[in-house]
């Protein structure tokens, strides 16, 4: 029996000649490079996406935020589809290949949609057919969401498949390197793509270079696909063996349907509603599903945390566009402020694990995983309170008008800096056509500033254009981007305490064969959190942005209290012990069956006329 099972497992896995480097399969290096390029592609595109919506497609802040979070929600819904396709149909390798092609196509389509010259027939720098650009952008984002979400649950698991059972240590090291490549890709892309976006490019007129900002991530995704294909001859490819998530859903569905059929009072009640699945499914599976559902119930309040957390790429980026990013030595683009998050993660994770948690433990404080998650949610709420305070200062500094209406003018020339353009100097040449005299006027434009130049009839043409009156319509942004760092610190500290602990808690409370189900549930909370943002952004009619920040903070504090109550009544379990309770009876049955078979054989041998052969069936 064991030999037959081993033969079936060997058939399910296509083994390739193993090439190792320092004890590691060479194939994993292709997987790590692939993941780095893919994460660079995704986070690089996402870093500039909300600004693309606002300044290229000309959407208002609310609609740009809505579409941004709809896209992010899709990116976290499609992993469930990808896992089912990989485990039940194509296998991990083919799923990664096919969906990466879809992914790369989406990135290319998005980059093409950002080329304003395609429909700029009058060459004025403004697309004449904005519907075409919007439609192309939406097609690109839909393909990207399908691709990035579809391969998300496959790549890490496929990397783990490259190791044998004796390489447990190497497998653990691989996952550390794998997640390091994710952080490295996201950090570098969030720094680089805003710089590319700030460049000026175009055939007829020079505009913000969104095609380059999207084109480089598209190129990296193509590189990721090529690198992964190059290593195909070295991979161990496991055949699809069925998806546990589908099996769990079928079990739950049968229990609900069977309970509904026996809703009449003459049928005796059962201890748990999942026990109504006993007619079709074994008790071990039902016990495992019960453990999973117990954890998933705790997941219900969690989307609110992600509703706040993912606004770093939308509301907080838009907030940064109204602030001064001049740090003296360098100038920070608004979309580059998102790099603060991965940088702080690299710092805070070891600090929490090596200093904070051990100190709390030495103080004999019961800082359980669920209490940590509650603290993380509270920190995220404080981050939005900090964002609201910063927004109040921005609102004070942004709308101060100083208009002088008493200066006689020949004509006026309004000039302004785009809200997130670097500090720069512009030059205007003024020509007197009658005398052919000229003068050059220089003006410094700062973040968010708007000026009107009043040119009086008495203007003296000369080298300095003396006589022009500068009127300040909107003051330059006086609130510095450095004031965003406290809110980024709070939200990142909340993420470290909440997200890392949440995954650790989920894995410790679930059966070993159902970790994927909880991973799907965790990703689903992220998707629902983004849906909450787009609902609030469209439904809330708050006149001020700071009020919306306070609304989100208040909602999260309310949810935090609910979660704390749920956590108080939660009882921690040991899945191994529970599973052992159901496996022991089966083992006992097998032992008794074996003893009865042996006993029958002995009896037969006693009554036989001569020495005869006998068989023991197992």
UniProtKB/TrEMBL annotation:
Subcellular locations according to the entry: Apical cell membrane; Cell membrane; Membrane
Recorded topology in the membrane: Multi-pass membrane protein
BP-aspect Gene Ontology terms: oligopeptide transport; protein transport
Origin: domain of life: Eukaryota
Catalyzed chemical reaction(s): L-alanyl-L-leucyl-L-alanine(out) + H(+)(out) = L-alanyl-L-leucyl-L-alanine(in) + H(+)(in); glycylglycyl-L-isoleucine(out) + H(+)(out) = glycylglycyl-L-isoleucine(in) + H(+)(in); glycyl-L-glutamate(out) + 2 H(+)(out) = glycyl-L-glutamate(in) + 2 H(+)(in); L-alanyl-L-prolylglycine(out) + H(+)(out) = L-alanyl-L-prolylglycine(in) + H(+)(in)
Cellular component GO terms, alphabetical: apical plasma membrane
Primary location class: membrane
Transmembrane regions: 21-43, 63-84, 96-118, 130-151, 172-192, 212-235, 291-309, 343-361, 373-394, 406-424, 516-537, 549-573
Disordered, as annotated region: 584-618
Keywords: Cell membrane, Glycoprotein, Membrane, Peptide transport, Protein transport, Symport, Transmembrane, Transmembrane helix, Transport
SUPFAM superfamilies xref list: MFS general substrate transporter (SSF103473)
Database matches in Pfam families: PTR2
Residue ranges with Basic and acidic residues bias: 586-609
Chain coiled-coil ranges: none
Recorded family membership: Belongs to the major facilitator superfamily. Proton-dependent oligopeptide transporter (POT/PTR) (TC 2.A.17) family.
Stated role: Electrogenic proton-coupled amino-acid transporter that transports oligopeptides of 2 to 4 amino acids with a preference for dipeptides. Transports neutral and monovalently charged peptides with a proton to peptide stoichiometry of 1:1 or 2:1. Primarily responsible for the absorption of dietary di- and tripeptides from the small intestinal lumen. Mediates transepithelial transport of muramyl and N-formylated bacterial dipeptides contributing to recognition of pathogenic bacteria by the mucosal immune system.
UniProt-recorded name of the protein: Solute carrier family 15 member 1
């Amino acid at each position: 029996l064991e030999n037959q099972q081993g033969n079936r497992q060997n058939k399910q896995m296509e083994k390739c000649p193993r090439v190792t480097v320092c004890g590691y399969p060479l194939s994993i290096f292709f997987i790590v490079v692939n993941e780095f390029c893919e994460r660079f592609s995704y986070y690089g595109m996402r870093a500039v996406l909300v600004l693309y919506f606002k300044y290229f497609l000309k959407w208002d802040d609310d609609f740009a935020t809505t579409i941004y979070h709809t896209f992010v929600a899709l990116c976290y819904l499609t992993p469930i589809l990808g896992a089912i396709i990989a485990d039940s149909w194509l296998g991990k390798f083919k799923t990664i290949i096919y969906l990466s092609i879809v992914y790369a196509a989406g990135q290319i389509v998005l980059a093409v949609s950002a080329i304003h010259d395609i429909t700029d027939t009058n060459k004025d720098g403004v697309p004449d057919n904005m519907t075409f650009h919007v439609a192309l952008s939406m097609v690109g984002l839909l393909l990207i969401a399908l691709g990035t979400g579809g391969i998300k649950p496959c790549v890490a698991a496929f990397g783990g498949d490259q190791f044998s059972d004796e390489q447990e240590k190497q497998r653990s090291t691989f996952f550390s390197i794998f997640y390091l490549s994710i952080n490295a890709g996201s950090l570098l892309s969030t720094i680089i793509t805003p710089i590319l976006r700030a460049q000026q490019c175009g055939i007829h007129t020079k505009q913000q270079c969104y095609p380059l900002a999207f084109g480089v991530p598209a190129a990296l995704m193509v590189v990721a696909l090529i690198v992964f294909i190059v290593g195909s001859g070295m991979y161990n490819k496991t055949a699809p063996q069925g998806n546990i998530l589908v099996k769990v859903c079928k079990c739950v569905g049968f229990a609900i349907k069977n309970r509904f059929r026996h809703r009449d009072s003459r049928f005796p009640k059962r201890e748990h509603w999942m026990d109504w699945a006993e007619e079709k499914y074994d008790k071990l599976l039902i016990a495992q599903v019960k453990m999973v559902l117990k954890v998933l119930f705790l997941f219900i309040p969690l989307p609110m945390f992600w509703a706040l957390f993912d606004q770093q790429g939308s509301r907080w980026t838009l907030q940064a566009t109204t602030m001064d990013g001049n740090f003296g030595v360098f100038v920070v683009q608004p979309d580059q402020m998102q790099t603060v998050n991965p940088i702080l993660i690299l710092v805070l994770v070891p600090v929490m694990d090596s200093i904070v948690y051990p100190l709390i433990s030495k103080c004999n404080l019961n800082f359980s995983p669920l209490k940590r998650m509650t603290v993380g949610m509270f920190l995220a709420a404080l981050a939005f309170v900090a964002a609201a305070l910063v927004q109040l200062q921005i609102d004070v500094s942004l709308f101060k008008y100083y208009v002088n209406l008493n200066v006689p003018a020949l004509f006026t020339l309004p000039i302004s800096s785009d809200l997130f353009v670097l500090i720069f100097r512009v030059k205007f040449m003024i020509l007197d056509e009658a005398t052919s005299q000229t003068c050059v006027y220089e003006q410094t434009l700062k973040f968010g500033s708007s000026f009107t130049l009043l040119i009086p009839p008495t203007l003296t043409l000369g080298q300095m254009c003396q006589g022009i009156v500068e009127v300040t319509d909107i003051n330059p942004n006086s609130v510095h981007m450095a004031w965003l760092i406290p809110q980024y610190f709070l939200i990142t500290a909340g993420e470290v305490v909440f997200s890392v602990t949440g995954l650790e808690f989920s894995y410790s409370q679930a059966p070993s064969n159902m970790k994927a189900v909880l991973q799907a549930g965790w990703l689903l909370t992220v998707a629902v959190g983004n849906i909450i943002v787009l609902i609030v952004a469209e439904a809330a009619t708050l006149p001020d942005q700071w009020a919306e920040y306070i609304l989100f903070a208040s909602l999260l504090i309310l949810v935090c209290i609910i979660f704390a109550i749920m956590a108080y009544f939660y009882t921690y379990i040991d899945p191994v012990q529970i599973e052992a309770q159901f496996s022991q009876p089966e083992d006992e049955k097998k032992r008794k069956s074996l003893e009865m078979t042996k006993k029958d054989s002995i009896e037969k041998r006693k009554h036989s006329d001569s020495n005869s052969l006998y068989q023991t069936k197992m």
